[in-house]
Predict the structure.
Amino acid sequence: MHPPPHRIFRAGGLRAVWRFLNEEKPDLLLTCNWGSIDWALARPRLCHLHQEHGFGAEEAAGQLPRRVWVRRLALRRAWRVVVPSRSLALAARRSWWVPEARLVRIPNGVPPDDARRAGGGGPVVIGTVAPLRPEKRLDWLLRALAQVGDGSAWRLLIAGDGPERGRLEAEAARLGLADRVAFLGHQREPRRTLADVDLYALSSATEQLPMSLLDAMALGLPVAGVRVGDVAEAVAVPNRPYIAPPHDLSALARSLRALLADAALRARLGAANRERQRERYAEAPMRDGYARLIESALRGPARSQPEARLAVA
């Protein structure tokens, strides 16, 4: 039997999901983010593990009340709800009413990296990795860089693609930055792009604990960013003054200007970020945390067959 087509909250959608799960009877249902909330709502009596990793463009400025109530209904009987950040754990407890005993925080993690940019004495290379969607607010980064002015030689590499690309290219041209900004499109291995970068920039309106930030830290890069999710907590303590308040383009521009002007400062902050990533955001603890959680679920009363069966929505 094939899973029903995804049609969240449309006529017959929840019933079709319920029928599929009731007939297949998986030992564990895994759901992730708002896009699978219909599966979380419709599930029969199954062991249910839900992951939340953040918000899209619709909730970049704040959670929508209707979605808050749906999450409350969908997650009230979940066996566990997993989040990567402290800020999202707080939202799960206060907004979605997930009991602390059923809430698990597993921070994101990435492998270490010893690659170092050779450096050629040319312009300082700023890099950012993001899908080109509205909530990533790369237009804010472009506007902040326009405020930096011509006193620093720099160029910007944007790794990622998406529906905002045309608008961002037009914005770069409008600001007079077209010759300094390169849109690289989708990169299968964004770390290779970051290996050619001197400074990582993050301008999103909403994040939790982004993998791209951790990759930049693993490569020993300093960060100019905005204080959303756990970004300020993630970077090393000396780097935190360069994480600007949300929506404050002037503060972001000041962070960029300071880091662009001081190679020794960039090297010092990058080294601290590399050490921070290795100590707090390694890949193995994340992987092992999820493995232990799934193994624990499959050892419980939901397991009904010699070979456990998972349904992933």
User: Anything to note?
Assistant: Residues 241 and 255 are 8 Å apart (CA to CA). Residues 13-109+283-312 form a domain with the Rossmann fold fold (CATH 3.40.50.2000). The longest strand covers residues 124-129. Residues 302-308 have pLDDT under 50 and may be disordered.
